Amino acid sequence: MKRITTQGLHCIELLDGSREWYWGMDYTSGDLYEVEELFRQGHSVSQNKLLFIHYPDGKVAQPVIAEKGQYLGRPICCNNQIILLKVDFPSEKIEIIQFDNTLKHMAVLAVLALSDVEDCYNLMLKGSPLMLTRQGQDHKFQILWPESAAFYMEDTETFLFGIDEKLYFSAWYETPEYWEETIVRNKSTGEIVKRIPGSMMLMPDGQVWIFQ
Q1: The pTM is what?
Q2: Band of residue 44 on the pLDDT scale cut at 50, 70, 90
Q3: Taking phi first (over 0 means left), then psi (-120 to 50 degrees means alpha), and beta for anything else, what does residue 138 get?
Q4: Torsions phi, psi of 159, nearest 5?
Q5: Which of 60, 104, 130, 185 sits in a 20 to 30 Å window from 192, CA-based?
Q6: Exposed, middle or buried by CB within 10 Å (0-12, 13-18, 19+), for 121?
């Protein structure tokens, strides 16, 4: 058995896009959207904590230590780079931060104004290629960075990932039996180009698995 100190974080999961890094986060004030609501209501925002655990050695890393009023979003691994999302509410800005696969070398890829985003509801990093997306409560899907696109989805759609000029969404139905399909859309226009029965998963090595 290997004993690993995670500073009280017990929900550890594999980092999307990686085969060797796991991550865990505390949710001091909820998710990004809930934190934003608290901030807009005049409450102080406590920062959260994000740790990475490397497999197989179990080494723990905390590459970014947020300050009061800052909140970290769900990280991903894209093209062997680890990408973090940090929202600084007092400064009204969003940072996209990149680390190499050792978590030692950092670069700020982009800084966006928080006012450029309608709100932080389902504000997430996705790949591949790397993009910052938002899926609103009104079923509006947006790509916010590095390019812009927006269109409306069907009621039960959830964005999965992008490959080149196509975006892949998962949708579920009860008619009356429960079933799922993958909806493929054009990245620029949102037009549906294909419907594939079953659910789909992008594997760390780039394979796409379809479960039918």
Answers
A1: 0.91
A2: confident
A3: alpha
A4: -70, 135
A5: 130
A6: middle
